[in-house]
Amino acid sequence: MSGERIHASYWLETGDDPRRAAEVIAGEQSSGTFLALAAETPALKARSGARVEQLEIIDTSDQPSLPGGMPSKRYTRCRLELSWPLENLGPSLPNLIATIAGNLFELRQVSGLRITDLRLPPAFAAAYAGPAFGIAGTRALAGVPAGPLIGTIIKPSVGLNPAETAAQVRQLLAGGIDFIKDDELQADGPHCPFEERVRAVMAVVNAAADKLGRKPMVAFNLTGDLDQMRRRHDLVQQLGGTCVMVSLNAVGLVGLTELRRHAQLPIHGHRAGWGWLSRCPALGWDYAPWQQIQRLAGADHLHVNGLANKFSEPDDSVIAAARAVLQPLFERAAMAAMPVFSSGQTGLQAPGTYAALGTADLIHAAGGGIFGHPGGIAAGVTAFRQAWAAAMAGTPLQDHAREHAELREALGFW
User: How do beta strands 5-14 and 110-119 pair?
Assistant: First the structure.
């Protein structure tokens, strides 16, 4: 651990002198405070202080991006890289968050700040196991050795009872679906209790698996308190389930880490709430550093939005997020996770997704794009799969549709 350092990069906007602002941030997030103290000796600062590794001025503005900062006639925008000695905190993800994303956002010198990159020393890989299943394990459990996992979300998101949910799953299985997930809003309410829902759904899935020769994966949302999540995981496993889902921002790093230590099933990580961390370009996180932390904590699947999605995220950001999720950590291929494309998706996005990413190591989930098919749910699954077959073969969808009726019908409503 001696000599190892944590590196974080930022987009910084400041009304102060940029070098002085960078030093204030470094001090605030390590050994310094707003006054010079006798106890912060040069030796202590050299040992424990954060260092400004890089400061590159980009441009300036006459208006601050965020309110409440230092009044100024000019606000300078910079690329900033800081580093910290690992000895300050040890390989601890919660304390890493406090260090790289703590009080620095509130400083008066800061009128904009966004975390853009993160490089961690190998001690974190020794302390955190990362994904237990990842891409290879997910494919093995779902029985899908190649191509994307064609997936969907139970719709309506909430309102169905356990029997109605199971009936919907039965129709999806009849169409050959690979992956089904609870919506993040479906938890353990009295109208659709978790245990009753899992029992009803898994009875259908287990029966279908005998006929299919494989078991489609269902990600049950077990988000809750730690003991609740452990109990819910164990029930899913006991009933033959092969995946659990958790809302990452809701349970936090400790929740995900403890679930990973307990779990014997893949963890489907939903990023609900990502907008509050990312939507303002002058505040928050880029996805690449954020997902790295979630992967280390144990997420096997990570949502990345989707092309031409219903939200505000542009396509280039979606693809960058997916590439980040697929990138090995610490040069370990097993540390790669499976990106999950969702949000207003249909087969129309299959060609662009495959062309941009260059791989089908992903889950592509469509809700309305499957359920709205005029031929029914099973036809919707088939059409979605046909779109992906065309995409991977480099065949235009319209050409492929001439020989595939389900896709031909789907193109009319997609």
Answer: antiparallel
